[in-house]
Amino acid sequence: MTSLKDHSVTQNGTGSDRIVISVDAMGGDRGPAAVVAGIARSAHKNPTLDFILHGPMAELQMLVNKRSELSGRCEIRHASGIVSMEDKPSQVMRNGKDTSMWSALESVKNKEATAAVSCGNTGALMALSMIRLRKLPGVNRPAIAILWPSRNPQGFNVMLDVGADIRADAKDLLQYALMGASYARNGLDLKKPRIGLLNVGTEQNKGFPELKEAYDLIEANAERGQFEFVGFVEGGDIPGKRCDVIVTDGFTGNVALKTGEGTAKLIVDQLRESFTQSFFGRLSGLIALPALKRFQKKVDPRRVNGGVFLGLNGTVVKSHGSADETGVSAAVKLAFELANAGFSDRLAARVASADELVQSDTTENRDTKDKSNT
Amino acid sequence: MTSLKDHSVTQNGTGSDRIVISVDAMGGDRGPAAVVAGIARSAHKNPTLDFILHGPMAELQMLVNKRSELSGRCEIRHASGIVSMEDKPSQVMRNGKDTSMWSALESVKNKEATAAVSCGNTGALMALSMIRLRKLPGVNRPAIAILWPSRNPQGFNVMLDVGADIRADAKDLLQYALMGASYARNGLDLKKPRIGLLNVGTEQNKGFPELKEAYDLIEANAERGQFEFVGFVEGGDIPGKRCDVIVTDGFTGNVALKTGEGTAKLIVDQLRESFTQSFFGRLSGLIALPALKRFQKKVDPRRVNGGVFLGLNGTVVKSHGSADETGVSAAVKLAFELANAGFSDRLAARVASADELVQSDTTENRDTKDKSNT
């Protein structure tokens, strides 16, 4: 059995320079072969990276043995059960102890690994993460944050929540702003991220009362939370450059994410089709290939694969269910970068101070509004 | 002054074969020149089309005189006021009597024209349409429906509401389903449109209680409403082929629309960039030009320009504020096709019968559920 015995394991990249990522090998649409191929690619690129891989021992052992990059860097933990895409979160919470997903989270809970990666069922992964890792003190609703291609210099914007919870009140939205700012600082290396609150117009009188309340709360906390609040933003700003972090409830965020993904895929498919419709189309497609590849690489969702669960005691990266080798490797890279930045501890500290802010805000919100940084 | 005196004017294309469209020349980002260019293009393509054009007489007269296609087919109605993009709907309702927008709706109200087209302020246009044309009997909230490029054979799906109102209860969503089905029948020529209700998952237990209530109401009315109900759909189905009409509240619909638009624009811009980055990129771009043009024509938002206001006594098409000649012409074409199909009267009949359905549904909803067509 491959094991980590030769390497010391650390929590956040300080002390030893090795980072351990816990990976759920099962539950993705392409099975464990794609997952092992993905972590092998990551292992090749990042020599300081080690893995604990969870799933059926015999099957995983065979796949891992074929990859020389993983030799001595990938410990396998046997788990016979698999969470399927159809399993209800409540079922998995009750009966999922033998699953690879449960086992993968256990390694983070026990501090053997700094972050977990799974391609499995999102609802089940969030439910298990909540009961195994528990919410950070002061967090009411954890959120899923994704990176979306944008016109900003960093190439991506953060959007949250994209579906951890369908509801969010004003205080939840403030916490999303603080968690999103922390993610943007650590994941996108932005010193003072610009936060926008998603609405149907940029005027202050637009939208639901909860949104206006959230506007005031976020605005009042901008200076102390070390972010800039740009106010209300619209759907077009998600891929835009008006802000770096888009804050919204999980219902709206999920619809926006899937609409954007679906539209992008339709365009790329139609583009491919327009290059195969005729002989000249195919010829020009061949000649245009390098430019098209450059383009595809830039917008390829597999290269920005990974929703991060924020607000838990530990980092969990949800890879797309259909992720292939490239997708899995992108998710592992994201987990590695966040682990390397000590993100989990930084976020915990940020949210703890935010909790105090929210407590005091309920009374002083209106007074401090004028002094805040907008 | 150009006038329509030589042509008889009809309401819906029956009787005489001429269709009159009322056009607000002002309020768009590109000014009246783009509007006049757009209607001239439409006049050239559709010999049965006449216009009443609203705005400052002298300026419009000069623009129209330059277009021989419009000779004898475009009556100008003087209106000195302009609704700007910044004007609040409430202001326009109180003080907007002298505006070209108000005047354009008046021609539909007085049955001189079958449909109105405006590139102006959406909120003001909806507010004025509500007070001047009034809601259809039985309609609680009018909706804005748009066409979105899709993988369906007809090339487009209908989505509503995209922003007439930020709220919608279960009965409103049923009315949107009925109005959307009517629009798809008349605008996309689909005999039995497939309706989907937008949610964050396709399982019946997902989403808010209002959505589950709407699910039951729409399901129970599918057979009598002559549509097929496919159940819950996700953001990815908006450009997909699971259904033809996507029903949602105006907040979610507006965010989805703008996210999709923004993402599509980002992709097209990045594609263009990838063809100009190097000499070979530019060369291959040149060679790939015909295929790229085919592609752009297919996804060009200017060619599907026009949100239709549903649930009013009369058809109003809201063109994009930044519409150029091509965009205005597309909006006029949509208004023409709907007028030609007698859409306004058909929708009114459909909603009137729907009103009865909703009345009876409140009691018999659960009983009829099993018999409905899903």
Description:
2 copies of one chain form a homodimer. By secondary structure, chain A is α/β, with parallel strands linked by helices. Chain A contains 11 helices and 11 strands. Chain A has an 11-stranded mixed beta sheet with strand order 3-2-1-4-11-10-5-6-9-7-8, with helices on both faces. In chain A, helix 2 (57-65) links the parallel strand 2 and strand 3 (74-78). At the A-B interface, helix 8 and helix 9 of A face helix 8 and helix 9 of B.
Strand content of chain A: 5-15%
Number of helices of chain A: 11
Low-confidence stretches of chain A: 1-15, 361-374
* Number of DSSP-assigned strands of chain A: 11
Number of domains of chain A: 2
Task: Specify the overall morphology of chain A.
Answer: globular
CATH C-level of the largest domain in chain A: Alpha Beta
State the largest interface.
Answer: A-B, 55 and 55 residues
CATH architecture of the largest domain in chain A: 3-Layer(aba) Sandwich
Major sheet summary line of chain A: 11 strands, mixed
Strand order of the largest sheet of chain A: 3-2-1-4-11-10-5-6-9-7-8
Oligomeric state: homodimer
CATH topology of the largest domain in chain A: Isopropylmalate Dehydrogenase
Radius of gyration of chain A: 21 Å
Tell me the span between the first and last alpha carbons of chain A: 56 Å
Relevant CATH superfamily of the largest domain in chain A:
Isopropylmalate Dehydrogenase
- What is the N-to-C succession of helices and strands of chain A? EHEHEHHEHEEHEHEEHHEEHH
